[in-house]
Amino acid sequence: MRRRRKAAALLAPVALAGCSFGASPEAVPPSPPTTPTASAPVSLDPFYEQPVRWVNCGPADCATITAPLDYERPQDGTIDLAITRVAATGDRLGTLFVNPGGPGASAVEYAKLADVIVGAPIRERYDIVGIDPRGVGLSSPVECLTDAELDELGAADGTPDSVEEEERLAELSRLPADGCVDGSGDLLAHVGTVDSARDLDLARAVVGDDVLNYVGRSYGTMLGATYAELFPERVGRMVLDGALPASLDLVEVTRGQAVGFELALRDFVEDCLDQSDCPLNGEVEEAQQQVRDWLASLDATPLSSGDRDLNEPLAAYAILANLYVPEFDYPRLRTALDDAMNRGEPSTLFDMLDDRISRGPDGRYTDNSTEAFYAVTCLDRPYRGSVEEVRMLATDWSEQAPTFGPALAWGLLTCQDWPAEGEGIGTTAAEGSNPILVVSTTHDPATPFSWGEQLADELANAQLLTYDGIGHTAYQRGSGCIDEAVDGYLLTGELPPAGTVCE
């Protein structure tokens, strides 16, 4: 039976035209755009002018707002968007929308962590607001897979060794597409980043701001840049940390991440070899090969933990998913690998993996982040390649990314011939916007530094701030230099000096 998640009230982000950042947040916003239909123009005014009723939800205030399912045909139905707000602690400057990435991560839950996701000066001056993008979390969530199907897909052999294994993998790769069609219906064609960016503008108007002030991480940078492309005159102060350019296709994104995570594994191994509790030994290259040899051994002989088997794809994903935040991930990954590699005990590695994929101890998934990831990614970046082309990519990527490249290449099949078409964005120049700050980390596994350079170049009015370090994203990650530069920009609108590099 397919599980059903109950949508509740909570979220919002986007921006509006023609007003300076310093305008009063209580000022009446400019008139919203209208969208013509084949018969007559249909105004979006009722959506932009809707009242919002905030209710307390613990550390924040929460609400539900209404958006059109299809902005081109707003008369054809609506969806609910969850929005949450954590009030400024001092003299309020405005609203700061935040998004943690994904796609599929909840901005509602992220905003509730306001005390740790932004600096104290920002917490004092801004209301921190999060809106779950459509299809995600509490915003009319897509429903695609049962818990059992999610488990089956996660354990699928991502490095097939025979035609039969390739055929089985291709069959399993259809689960998200078929399930999304069955469980999400018309919503599936309207969960792309363009529609979510329009929702941001709607949310900006509903909270009473004239422009959108925004901090987006990872996929949240693509959402923010898309907003800037659609509504450049409504961009206030925008920080894009861990850039994901909209101009990259799915093969380019996947290859970049395969190489990025391979380099991150090397960073982990180098650090591990300097620690007394490291389960690896020898030179860095030898230790990396030890990891690959151990993963390959699980293909034939998985490790059992209760009613679960740790096979090669699950172990590889557990490692990859814990290469994001070195100061937190590396120590526990050393322990988990020591338990699994030297004692045959995979439970610690399973716990780490479950934590990253929102799988509870009872085997139930606590949110729809994985389903939303497929639905948004495959709509934004459809893949038209064949099994033969994927096989060639897997072989090619194995040279530069031997640990993760082949499996990530075969993962492209999930988006093959996706059963819905959305509105793509192509590129994000955002001509006429206020200055945008792009932040990029030199050793970022998920959003490589070159993507930060690319996005800063594509945007007409942007500046790159570099963090010379390891890990995914940079703001509030321990660099006082980065935090001071970002906070200063959000408070004054002044960019850090061109070419600034922080450690």
For the record, the count of structural domains works out to 2
Helix content percent band: 40-55%
Could you name the CATH class of the largest domain?
Alpha Beta
Return the structural class. Answer: alpha/beta
User: What general outline do the C-alpha atoms trace?
Assistant: globular
Would you identify the regions where 5 or more consecutive residues have pLDDT less than 50? 1-40
- Beginning-to-end CA distance, first to last residue: 51 Å
CATH superfamily of the largest domain: Alpha/Beta hydrolase fold, catalytic domain
The averaged pLDDT comes out at 92
Major sheet: arrangement of strands: 3-4-5-7-6-8-9-12-13-14
Total beta-strand segments: 14
State which percent range the strand residues make up. 5-15%
User: How would you characterize the largest beta sheet?
Assistant: 10 strands, mixed
And the CATH topology of the largest domain? Answer: Rossmann fold
* Radius of gyration over C-alpha positions, nearest whole angstrom: 22 Å
* CATH-level-2 architecture of the largest domain: 3-Layer(aba) Sandwich
